Protein backbone atom coordinates (compact mmCIF):
# COMPACT_ATOMS: atom_id res chain seq x y z
CA UNK A 1 0.00 0.00 0.00
CA UNK A 2 1.43 3.43 -0.94
CA UNK A 3 2.27 5.83 1.87
CA UNK A 4 -0.23 8.61 2.49
CA UNK A 5 0.61 11.82 0.61
CA UNK A 6 0.90 14.20 3.51
CA UNK A 7 3.64 16.55 2.31
CA UNK A 8 1.32 19.23 0.94
CA UNK A 9 3.74 21.98 1.94
CA UNK A 10 6.17 20.96 -0.89
CA UNK A 11 3.57 20.78 -3.65
CA UNK A 12 3.68 23.52 -6.24
CA UNK A 13 0.39 24.52 -7.85
CA UNK A 14 1.94 27.36 -9.89
CA UNK A 15 -0.83 29.68 -8.77
CA UNK A 16 0.71 32.55 -10.71
CA UNK A 17 0.55 30.70 -14.06
CA UNK A 18 -2.82 30.61 -15.83
CA UNK A 19 -3.89 27.15 -16.99
CA UNK A 20 -2.91 26.52 -20.58
CA UNK A 21 -5.70 25.80 -23.03
CA UNK A 22 -5.20 23.37 -25.89
CA UNK A 23 -5.86 26.13 -28.43
CA UNK A 24 -7.10 25.99 -31.97
CA UNK A 25 -6.52 22.76 -33.89
CA UNK A 26 -4.40 23.46 -36.97
CA UNK A 27 -6.46 21.72 -39.66
CA UNK A 28 -9.14 23.56 -41.57
CA UNK A 29 -12.65 22.88 -40.31
CA UNK A 30 -11.44 20.38 -37.73
CA UNK A 31 -11.56 22.47 -34.56
CA UNK A 32 -14.76 20.94 -33.23
CA UNK A 33 -13.66 17.33 -33.60
CA UNK A 34 -13.03 15.15 -30.57
CA UNK A 35 -9.54 14.62 -29.16
CA UNK A 36 -9.11 11.12 -30.54
CA UNK A 37 -10.07 12.13 -34.03
CA UNK A 38 -7.81 15.17 -33.97
CA UNK A 39 -5.01 12.97 -32.69
CA UNK A 40 -5.48 10.55 -35.58
CA UNK A 41 -5.60 13.44 -38.06
CA UNK A 42 -2.40 14.86 -36.61
CA UNK A 43 -0.68 11.58 -37.42
CA UNK A 44 -1.76 11.86 -41.07
CA UNK A 45 -1.18 15.63 -41.48
CA UNK A 46 2.20 16.74 -40.08
CA UNK A 47 1.55 19.24 -37.29
CA UNK A 48 4.62 21.24 -38.34
CA UNK A 49 3.24 22.01 -41.81
CA UNK A 50 -0.42 20.98 -41.63
CA UNK A 51 0.23 18.96 -44.80
CA UNK A 52 0.58 15.35 -45.84
CA UNK A 53 2.15 13.15 -48.48
CA UNK A 54 0.05 10.01 -48.62
CA UNK A 55 1.26 7.06 -50.68
CA UNK A 56 -1.73 5.38 -52.36
CA UNK A 57 -1.29 1.68 -53.07
CA UNK A 58 -4.91 0.51 -52.74
CA UNK A 59 -5.47 0.00 -56.49
CA UNK A 60 -5.65 -3.79 -56.13
CA UNK A 61 -9.05 -3.59 -54.46
CA UNK A 62 -10.70 -3.19 -57.84
CA UNK A 63 -8.03 -3.95 -60.47
CA UNK A 64 -5.75 -6.60 -59.01
CA UNK A 65 -1.96 -6.46 -59.37
CA UNK A 66 -1.52 -3.00 -60.87
CA UNK A 67 1.74 -2.17 -62.65
CA UNK A 68 4.25 -1.28 -59.95
CA UNK A 69 2.27 -3.09 -57.25
CA UNK A 70 2.87 -6.67 -58.41
CA UNK A 71 5.12 -7.21 -55.37
CA UNK A 72 4.33 -4.73 -52.63
CA UNK A 73 6.98 -6.33 -50.43
CA UNK A 74 9.68 -5.66 -53.02
CA UNK A 75 8.59 -2.35 -54.57
CA UNK A 76 6.62 -0.51 -51.92
CA UNK A 77 8.09 -1.34 -48.52
CA UNK A 78 11.24 0.75 -49.18
CA UNK A 79 9.01 3.78 -49.89
CA UNK A 80 6.82 3.54 -46.80
CA UNK A 81 9.18 5.40 -44.42
CA UNK A 82 9.15 8.42 -46.76
CA UNK A 83 5.35 8.73 -46.69
CA UNK A 84 3.39 10.64 -44.06
CA UNK A 85 0.64 8.04 -44.44
CA UNK A 86 0.09 4.84 -46.39
CA UNK A 87 -3.27 4.33 -48.11
CA UNK A 88 -3.88 0.62 -48.56
CA UNK A 89 -6.29 -2.26 -48.10
CA UNK A 90 -6.47 -4.42 -45.02
CA UNK A 91 -5.34 -7.43 -47.08
CA UNK A 92 -2.05 -5.80 -48.01
CA UNK A 93 -1.68 -4.34 -44.54
CA UNK A 94 -1.97 -7.68 -42.77
CA UNK A 95 -0.09 -9.72 -45.33
CA UNK A 96 2.75 -7.42 -46.28
CA UNK A 97 3.24 -4.31 -44.14
CA UNK A 98 5.25 -4.94 -40.96
CA UNK A 99 3.27 -4.13 -37.83
CA UNK A 100 6.38 -2.33 -36.58
CA UNK A 101 5.96 0.29 -39.32
CA UNK A 102 5.78 3.82 -37.91
CA UNK A 103 3.88 5.19 -40.92
CA UNK A 104 0.20 5.77 -40.15
CA UNK A 105 -2.35 3.99 -42.30
CA UNK A 106 -5.40 5.30 -44.15
CA UNK A 107 -7.42 2.20 -44.86
CA UNK A 108 -9.55 1.53 -47.92
CA UNK A 109 -13.04 0.89 -46.53
CA UNK A 110 -15.25 0.54 -49.62
CA UNK A 111 -15.24 -1.88 -52.52
CA UNK A 112 -17.21 -4.53 -54.34
CA UNK A 113 -17.10 -4.25 -58.12
CA UNK A 114 -13.97 -5.05 -60.07
CA UNK A 115 -12.87 -3.00 -63.03
CA UNK A 116 -14.96 -5.42 -65.15
CA UNK A 117 -18.21 -4.09 -63.66
CA UNK A 118 -19.96 -0.82 -62.80
CA UNK A 119 -17.46 0.72 -60.40
CA UNK A 120 -19.94 2.93 -58.57
CA UNK A 121 -21.76 -0.14 -57.24
CA UNK A 122 -19.60 -0.15 -54.10
CA UNK A 123 -20.52 -1.02 -50.56
CA UNK A 124 -18.69 -0.69 -47.31
CA UNK A 125 -16.10 -3.45 -47.21
CA UNK A 126 -14.88 -3.42 -43.63
CA UNK A 127 -16.25 -3.29 -40.07
CA UNK A 128 -15.18 -0.37 -37.94
CA UNK A 129 -14.04 -2.97 -35.38
CA UNK A 130 -11.43 -4.25 -37.77
CA UNK A 131 -10.19 -0.74 -38.53
CA UNK A 132 -9.75 -0.15 -34.79
CA UNK A 133 -8.03 -3.51 -34.40
CA UNK A 134 -5.60 -2.48 -37.14
CA UNK A 135 -4.94 0.81 -35.34
CA UNK A 136 -5.41 2.85 -38.51
CA UNK A 137 -5.64 6.64 -38.55
CA UNK A 138 -8.41 7.18 -41.11
CA UNK A 139 -10.77 5.33 -43.44
CA UNK A 140 -11.19 6.00 -47.17
CA UNK A 141 -14.48 5.64 -48.99
CA UNK A 142 -15.24 6.24 -52.67
CA UNK A 143 -18.09 8.62 -53.48
CA UNK A 144 -19.43 8.67 -57.05
CA UNK A 145 -21.31 11.97 -57.40
CA UNK A 146 -23.30 11.76 -60.63
CA UNK A 147 -22.51 8.05 -60.94
CA UNK A 148 -25.08 5.33 -61.45
CA UNK A 149 -25.01 4.36 -57.78
CA UNK A 150 -24.48 7.87 -56.45
CA UNK A 151 -26.92 7.60 -53.53
CA UNK A 152 -25.56 4.23 -52.46
CA UNK A 153 -22.00 5.55 -52.33
CA UNK A 154 -23.05 8.70 -50.47
CA UNK A 155 -24.86 6.45 -48.02
CA UNK A 156 -21.70 4.33 -47.64
CA UNK A 157 -19.88 7.51 -46.68
CA UNK A 158 -22.50 8.76 -44.22
CA UNK A 159 -22.66 5.35 -42.50
CA UNK A 160 -18.90 5.31 -42.22
CA UNK A 161 -18.87 8.88 -40.86
CA UNK A 162 -21.40 7.87 -38.20
CA UNK A 163 -19.27 4.89 -37.21
CA UNK A 164 -16.13 6.99 -37.30
CA UNK A 165 -17.63 9.64 -35.04
CA UNK A 166 -18.51 6.93 -32.54
CA UNK A 167 -14.90 5.81 -32.27
CA UNK A 168 -12.84 8.86 -33.21
CA UNK A 169 -11.95 7.59 -36.67
CA UNK A 170 -11.68 10.22 -39.45
CA UNK A 171 -13.18 9.48 -42.86
CA UNK A 172 -11.60 10.56 -46.12
CA UNK A 173 -14.10 10.79 -48.99
CA UNK A 174 -12.59 10.03 -52.39
CA UNK A 175 -14.41 11.79 -55.22
CA UNK A 176 -14.49 9.28 -58.06
CA UNK A 177 -15.14 10.79 -61.46
CA UNK A 178 -16.86 8.49 -63.95
CA UNK A 179 -15.44 8.26 -67.47
CA UNK A 180 -18.46 10.05 -68.88
CA UNK A 181 -18.22 13.03 -66.51
CA UNK A 182 -16.39 16.33 -67.06
CA UNK A 183 -13.51 16.60 -64.61
CA UNK A 184 -13.73 20.36 -64.11
CA UNK A 185 -13.79 22.76 -61.18
CA UNK A 186 -17.55 23.07 -61.28
CA UNK A 187 -18.01 19.32 -60.86
CA UNK A 188 -15.26 18.96 -58.24
CA UNK A 189 -16.60 21.89 -56.20
CA UNK A 190 -19.95 20.16 -56.03
CA UNK A 191 -18.54 16.70 -55.27
CA UNK A 192 -16.13 17.89 -52.56
CA UNK A 193 -18.69 20.13 -50.93
CA UNK A 194 -21.28 17.35 -50.81
CA UNK A 195 -18.77 15.06 -49.12
CA UNK A 196 -17.86 17.71 -46.54
CA UNK A 197 -21.46 18.74 -45.91
CA UNK A 198 -22.37 15.14 -45.20
CA UNK A 199 -19.55 14.72 -42.71
CA UNK A 200 -16.27 13.63 -44.30
CA UNK A 201 -13.35 14.91 -42.22
CA UNK A 202 -11.19 15.34 -45.34
CA UNK A 203 -11.57 14.84 -49.08
CA UNK A 204 -9.37 13.44 -51.82
CA UNK A 205 -9.99 14.90 -55.23
CA UNK A 206 -8.32 15.56 -58.58
CA UNK A 207 -6.41 18.64 -59.60
CA UNK A 208 -7.76 20.79 -62.40
CA UNK A 209 -5.72 23.54 -64.04
CA UNK A 210 -8.65 25.97 -64.13
CA UNK A 211 -10.26 26.95 -60.86
CA UNK A 212 -8.79 24.44 -58.41
CA UNK A 213 -8.53 27.24 -55.84
CA UNK A 214 -12.33 27.50 -55.91
CA UNK A 215 -12.56 23.79 -55.13
CA UNK A 216 -10.36 24.14 -52.03
CA UNK A 217 -11.94 27.46 -51.00
CA UNK A 218 -15.49 26.12 -51.07
CA UNK A 219 -14.66 22.92 -49.21
CA UNK A 220 -14.71 23.53 -45.44
CA UNK A 221 -12.36 20.62 -44.66
CA UNK A 222 -8.85 19.77 -45.95
CA UNK A 223 -8.47 18.55 -49.52
CA UNK A 224 -5.69 16.22 -50.60
CA UNK A 225 -4.87 16.07 -54.28
CA UNK A 226 -5.25 12.71 -56.03
CA UNK A 227 -2.39 11.71 -58.28
CA UNK A 228 -4.18 10.05 -61.18
CA UNK A 229 -2.58 8.39 -64.15
CA UNK A 230 1.19 8.44 -64.59
CA UNK A 231 2.59 11.71 -65.93
CA UNK A 232 6.17 12.71 -66.74
CA UNK A 233 7.80 13.44 -63.36
CA UNK A 234 8.18 17.19 -63.90
CA UNK A 235 4.49 17.45 -64.83
CA UNK A 236 3.47 15.51 -61.72
CA UNK A 237 5.64 17.70 -59.50
CA UNK A 238 4.23 20.83 -61.15
CA UNK A 239 0.68 19.58 -60.57
CA UNK A 240 1.46 18.93 -56.89
CA UNK A 241 3.10 22.34 -56.55
CA UNK A 242 0.13 24.14 -58.06
CA UNK A 243 -2.34 22.19 -55.93
CA UNK A 244 -0.46 23.23 -52.79
CA UNK A 245 -0.29 26.86 -53.92
CA UNK A 246 -4.03 26.73 -54.62
CA UNK A 247 -5.05 25.52 -51.19
CA UNK A 248 -4.57 21.75 -51.00
CA UNK A 249 -3.48 20.30 -47.66
CA UNK A 250 -1.40 17.59 -49.26
CA UNK A 251 -1.37 14.87 -51.86
CA UNK A 252 -2.37 11.22 -52.05
CA UNK A 253 -0.35 9.89 -54.96
CA UNK A 254 0.12 6.37 -56.24
CA UNK A 255 1.11 5.69 -59.82
CA UNK A 256 3.03 8.95 -60.17
CA UNK A 257 5.28 7.67 -57.41
CA UNK A 258 5.48 3.89 -57.68
CA UNK A 259 5.49 3.82 -61.51
CA UNK A 260 8.30 6.36 -61.65
CA UNK A 261 11.81 5.31 -62.73
CA UNK A 262 12.93 6.29 -59.26
CA UNK A 263 10.05 5.89 -56.80
CA UNK A 264 12.27 6.77 -53.85
CA UNK A 265 13.53 9.91 -55.57
CA UNK A 266 10.03 10.86 -56.61
CA UNK A 267 8.42 10.53 -53.20
CA UNK A 268 11.19 12.61 -51.65
CA UNK A 269 10.76 15.26 -54.34
CA UNK A 270 6.98 15.33 -53.79
CA UNK A 271 7.56 15.68 -50.06
CA UNK A 272 9.81 18.71 -50.60
CA UNK A 273 7.14 20.32 -52.79
CA UNK A 274 4.38 19.65 -50.28
CA UNK A 275 6.13 20.44 -47.01
CA UNK A 276 8.72 23.01 -48.06
CA UNK A 277 7.12 24.62 -51.12
CA UNK A 278 10.09 23.60 -53.27
CA UNK A 279 9.72 24.73 -56.88
CA UNK A 280 8.94 21.91 -59.37
CA UNK A 281 12.19 22.29 -61.35
CA UNK A 282 14.28 22.11 -58.18
CA UNK A 283 12.31 19.10 -56.96
CA UNK A 284 12.79 17.49 -60.38
CA UNK A 285 16.56 17.86 -60.02
CA UNK A 286 16.31 16.23 -56.62
CA UNK A 287 14.33 13.34 -58.15
CA UNK A 288 16.91 12.88 -60.92
CA UNK A 289 19.88 12.86 -58.59
CA UNK A 290 18.50 10.56 -55.92
C1 LIG B 1 -9.20 4.76 -56.65
O1 LIG B 1 -9.86 5.65 -56.96
C2 LIG B 1 -8.19 4.78 -55.61
O2 LIG B 1 -8.37 5.63 -54.63
C3 LIG B 1 -6.91 4.46 -56.14
O3 LIG B 1 -6.73 3.10 -56.12
C4 LIG B 1 -5.69 5.21 -55.79
O4 LIG B 1 -5.72 5.77 -54.56
C5 LIG B 1 -5.36 6.16 -56.88
O5 LIG B 1 -4.07 6.64 -56.79
P1 LIG B 1 -3.34 7.23 -58.08
O6 LIG B 1 -4.41 7.73 -58.98
O7 LIG B 1 -2.51 8.34 -57.54
O8 LIG B 1 -2.54 6.15 -58.69
Structure, explained:
The protein has 290 residues and is an alpha/beta fold. The protein is built from 12 helices and 10 strands. The chain has helices at residues 35-44, 60-63, 72-75, 90-96, 128-133, 150-167, 185-197, 212-217, 233-245, 255-258, 263-276, 280-289; strands at residues 52-56, 85-88, 105-108, 110-111, 123-124, 138-143, 171-175, 202-205, 223-226, 250-253. The strands form 2 sheets. The chain has an 8-stranded parallel barrel, surrounded by 6 helices. The longest helix has 18 residues, at 150-167. The chain starts with 34 loop residues before the first helix and ends with a helix. The mean pLDDT is 95. Ribose-5-phosphate binds next to helix 10.
Question: Structural class per helix/strand content?
Answer: alpha/beta
Total strands: the figure is 10
Q: List low-pLDDT spans.
A: none
Q: Specify the helix fraction band.
A: 25-40%
Q: What general outline do the C-alpha atoms trace? A: globular
Radius of gyration over C-alpha positions, nearest whole angstrom: 21 Å
Query: What's the order of the H and E elements?
Result: HEHHEHEEEHEHEHEHEHEHHH
Describe the structure using short key phrases.
single chain; 290 residues; alpha/beta; globular; binds ribose-5-phosphate
